């Protein structure tokens, strides 16, 4: 590895994780905001597969299955290290939510040279991952979007702006994941496990329950066969193409993934900002995709963004409902949970995709 000869702790053992948590707690006591665990794939330079040999032994605890080879525990090694780091951060700062980064998802790749088209496609879809970043190793071309020219810079800006627009929805998805364990980014087969045609789908994924991302990762701009939004059938109606960004240029950009909304869904959107604390969410755009019966539902989750007050009810979960009758779309707040307060200046703006509406009555 980078510093030379290294020793890898066996994080499959609770005693090792406890030892590591102690080290992290001491580190975090310096009033740091988080930790970044690097090279914990684990990465080993002087092996054919650039990782720990699969024949290495782990003295794993019985709860994980007991001692076995690295071939068995490779995919959980980094997660177990992150778990131990999480516990150390919590011990040092029990009033704050731990912030733990781990490898990798490098947009454009960490090594080698990415073409402009590859980078553009990569950041287009990567901006919708739960976590991604752009950086490169020493000796490789830089990965800042403007390094690839004006066209790629424009695509990158639209990709990041789309993510910012989706932050209220993504926050709600992360909160759901913390309660249920269902990931934010989901393979299509997770939602339809009995559909064998979706088991091999590797260019589309679900973002939460209600947004389908068609990435289009092939080197050619056109894909053969029917798109996933058509093959992933819903009895409530068709998945509809959604312009989450809002600008026509974003919808026409061939390097950005196509986003589709589930029939009968409501996705909350926010403003384009430079960082999450730039301004309060005083205007929520309600993006609606009605089902075949003219109905839709959706949820927005909010809290302070730090601490654990949400465990005692300091949160706000807002349930929206919409119904189209006689050309009039009625949108209302059907229920709310928690005692956290939304900004007093909050307003709502309603956008409907795929249906003609004569009048909107919003919350």
TrEMBL record:
Residues of the Glycoside hydrolase family 31 TIM barrel domain: 2-108
Name of the protein: DUF5110 domain-containing protein
Alphabetized InterPro entries for the sequence: DUF5110, GH, Glyco_hydro_31_AS, Glyco_hydro_31_C, Glyco_hydro_31_TIM, Glyco_hydro_b
Domain Glycosyl hydrolase family 31 C-terminal per the UniProt entry, residue ranges: 181-267
Tree of life domain: Bacteria
Keywords: Glycosidase, Hydrolase
Any Pfam family matching the protein: Glyco_hydro_31_3rd
Family according to the record: Belongs to the glycosyl hydrolase 31 family.
Stored SUPFAM superfamilies: (Trans)glycosidases
Positions of the UniProt region annotated as Disordered: 46-67
Domain spans labelled DUF5110: 288-354
Organism annotation: Eiseniibacteriota bacterium
